[in-house]
Design goal:
The chain is α+β, with helices and mostly antiparallel strands. The chain contains four helices and three strands; from the N terminus they run H-E-E-H-H-E-H.
Length: about 110
Amino acid sequence: MESTRQKKVSRLLQKEAADLFLRKGNEFARGKMISVTRVRISPDLSVARIYISIFPSDGQEDIMKGIQDHSPKIRYEIGRKVGKQLRIVPEISFFIDDSLDYIDNIDRILKS
């Protein structure tokens, strides 16, 4: 169970990461929409796991590789925004959130 502080920090990181992908999303994926679906943060606030959803989902691996290669730059950009609110900007790792693909697959199975 997450503490109140973890929830606040994860919401803050989710908002800033989503804003960053909105402004600079074309650097990572031309013609695709990147959404930050969830942020999980460790109890000591040192590691953040950011789950992203990419639409349309074809070519997700290449986009994820590009995002992971730029993760220090992304952490720096987020750190500039939240530097006054957090003493230490957490280490960031990105993961694909495939829940939308899972829901789409279930819908397809139910319709057939």
